[in-house]
Design goal:
It is built from no helices and 6 strands. It is mainly beta.
Length: about 90
C-alpha cells in the first residue's frame, strides 16, 4: 500500500474467474499439471478482465519475423503474464 492511501472495504478490486490460456482451462499441460495456473485451470483476475498485451492472451510470446513482417508464435511461456494470458492476475 502506498503512503497516504486508505484501505477500506470498498477499495478492494472487483474480481473475475477466467480460464488459463496455457491449458485452456483443462488444468493439464503435456503429461502433468499446468505450471501457469498450478493445475487449477482457472485464474482470478482483476475486473474488468484484460488479456495480456504482450502475447494477445495466448500465454506464449509473439515474435516478429523481420524478413516476412509476419508474427510467429514461439513455444516458450510469455514473460509478462507467465503463460496465464491475462493482465492483473491475483495470485
Amino acid at each position: 500500500m502506498r503512503s497516504g492511501t486508505r484501505k477500506s472495504s470498498d477499495s478492494f478490486p472487483q474480481i473475475e474467474t477466467v480460464n488459463c490460456a496455457m491449458c485452456a482451462g483443462s488444468s493439464r499441460f503435456g503429461n502433468g499439471q499446468c505450471p501457469s495456473c498450478d493445475g487449477k485451470g482457472l485464474l482470478t483476475v482483476a475486473a474488468p478482465s484484460a488479456t495480456c498485451p504482450h502475447c494477445n492472451g495466448t500465454g506464449k510470446p509473439i515474435k516478429k519475423d523481420l524478413r516476412s513482417d509476419m508474427s510467429a508464435e514461439l513455444s516458450q511461456v510469455c514473460p509478462i503474464c507467465l503463460g496465464t494470458g491475462w493482465s492483473l492476475v491475483l495470485w
